[in-house]
Design goal:
The structure is a single chain. The chain has ten helices and ten strands. The chain has 279 residues and is an alpha+beta fold. The strands form three sheets. It has a six-stranded antiparallel β-sheet with strand order 3-4-5-8-7-6. Helix 1 packs across helix 9 and helix 3 crosses helix 4.
Length: 279
């Protein structure tokens, strides 16, 4: 039995629904974007190791949901821009984000055909000229607990490629004194494991996951670090200190440009040079 079929066997969910869930996740994450033609039935049949009728049923399900549209003689296309249905943003401090992952051990995964750049919302800043895409499984005591898809500003990656490929990227980025970080935020939503993620994290297909996006922006309003992280649900929890320290300077994104209200020199000297809260 192949690894993929072993993953299918862990779930009682009908196979076509499992496939539909995986394809839905690709659309929601931006891997397949609005107007883009998705893989053919033949390609999906080979990739997921299922019968053609199973793939067809999965596509029909997505079509009923309005996510894709089949065009006679041309193929199947993603319909329009996918709407974000998750409105609740959970916040934490910069320091508490960095501390727990300093000792993480990443296992890098080579990716063919990786997206050249991330999808950004208006508040995520502006795109860098070039990005390096890094995909890894994060392990703690040899147990996988997260899959990370990272777009890192190429000019920053080129400063120390070896470090970024052998260590968790965010603590390294935070340690670069010449990089002026003025804003960082992250969002967290609850999801389910698609076949590839389930195999990498050693969980069943459709198991609950915590899906986090972390964006770090520099003084020029460039999104220098954009990470989409999928955590095993059974190894992550969110703790929010509702009476934590005051926020640093206010940072807002308007029209794709970053507007920052700087701290006074005295206030800046008393705190960290990095953002201590995300918004």
């Amino acid at each position: 039995m192949s690894k993929l079929k072993a993953v299918y066997a862990r779930s009682a969910v009908p196979l076509y629904i499992q496939i539909a869930s995986a394809l839905r996740q690709r659309i929601g994450s931006g891997r397949w974007q609005g107007g883009q033609k998705i893989s053919t039935l033949e390609e999906l049949e080979r990739e997921f190791e299922v019968a053609r009728v199973t793939v067809r049923l999965a596509i029909e399900l997505l079509e009923r949901e309005g996510l894709v549209q089949r065009q006679q003689g041309r193929g199947t296309f993603v319909t329009g821009k996918v709407q974000d249905k998750h409105w609740l943003r959970l916040e934490t401090s910069w320091a508490s984000l960095i501390a727990p992952i300093k000792s993480n051990v990443p296992r890098m995964i080579e990716v063919k055909g990786a997206p050249a750049r991330p999808m950004l919302s208006e508040e995520d800043g502006r795109l860098a000229a070039r990005y390096t895409f890094l995909r890894s499984v994060q392990l703690k005591n040899d147990t996988p607990y997260a899959v990370v898809n990272l777009h890192l500003d190429r000019s920053i990656y080129d400063r120390d490629p070896e470090a970024f490929r052998t260590h968790t990227a965010l603590p390294i980025l935070a340690s670069l004194k010449e990089v002026d970080i003025v804003h960082a935020h992250q969002t967290l939503v609850i999801g389910t494991a698609d076949p590839e993620t389930a195999a990498l994290l050693d969980v069943s297909l459709g198991a609950p996951t915590a899906e986090c996006r972390c964006v770090v922006i520099d003084k020029d309003g460039i999104a220098i670090y954009v990470a989409d992280i999928v955590y095993r649900n059974d190894c992550v929890k969110l703790h929010i200190d509702l009476f934590g320290s005051a926020r640093p300077e206010a940072a807002t994104i308007k029209g794709g440009k970053l507007a920052v209200k700087r701290k006074t020199r005295r206030a800046a000297a008393s705190g960290s040079r990095r953002p201590r809260a995300v918004h």
